[in-house]
Amino acid sequence: MIHKKQSYPQIAKILVALVVLSFTACKSVNQKNTMEVGLKNVSEFPIGTAININKLINDQELMALQLSNFNSITATSDMKMQSILPAENQFNWKKADTILYYAKKHNQRLFGHNLIWHSSTPKWVEEKGANDSAWLGEFMKEYIHKYVGRYKGKVAGWDVVNEAFESAGGEYRKTFWYNNFGKDYIANAFRYAHEADPDAVLFYNDFNIERDTTKLNAVLKMVEEFKKEGVPIHGIGFQMHIRMDTPDEVIAYSLEKAAATGLQIHLSEVDIIFNSHNDERLGGIENFSSITTEMKQAQAEKYKNLVLMYRKIVPKKQQYGITVWDFTDRDSWIKGFFNMKDWPTIYDDDLKPKPAYYGFLEGLKVKTEKK
Ligand code: XIL
Known about the structure:
With 371 residues, this protein is an alpha/beta fold.
């Protein structure tokens, strides 16, 4: 048989094809591995993500990753008051119903975020309530009864009140709610939520309590008061929006103190940034405008340590779970909210697992003494 001599352009084409082929093979092995393992499959407690429901159901690739890794789901903003009741008497259940449908269909826990948060109180409520505390008190009661009641037995737990303490220092935050009722609105919100669904696990949720001991102590003082007065609080949510320079020892100390209450502990909004954000939410300081291999490795280590600390310090029966706040750098809130670049999550802009993903996985897998 006579073989035709291959011409150079043909050989070049074949080489290119081989390179492309091996590259796609590597890519799919990589993806397949993370899909096969899946964070939830190696975890003893629920692994959750916050997400925008419409984005999720309209993106097959994102959904595949969500399904393989997570068994708990939280809405980033679709279940806040601003979204549920944007105008008087105009309840908007559509997105909450969609996320519930998704959670049920895929056997995931639905976590409710949140009932009362100063940042998501609609303008119309502030305007109407400004001169009418009696109306406002009734409104809060009815809103919580109606909302929690509607999802009774379907939403497993709620962030009942979010961020009721000042960013730093441990004073109650002087919000619209506080200015009307003093701190009593917090206890009342918990009472109403419990009345509407006695089985729901009720959380107080805040940021920086893993690093600001004064703020943590103030939250724990409130928890103790609630326990004494029989206010139904069941858990503490550490948002855990941390930075690479947040010391692990301080986080460990805070988790230990909070776990000593005996309440459920939820790492509820985990992400880890390199740059720094202003705690008053007035933007960020962009010290890094690109990410290096070393930075990625350091972040992987930080994720691993965080997961390990949670497993080692929080007794098993108090481990409500770890929830990340979006799971891709593409979708993370950090860039838009603080107007700076960053790489806070476990998947990159192209939805590929970062070293942080493997750090998280490793943190779940490492053998450790059981609590
Ligand atoms: C953020 C959402 O991720 C953003 O999309 C939205 O613009 C603002 O709120 N602490 C919380 C969350 O409790 O509700 C916030 O979510 C992030 C900080």
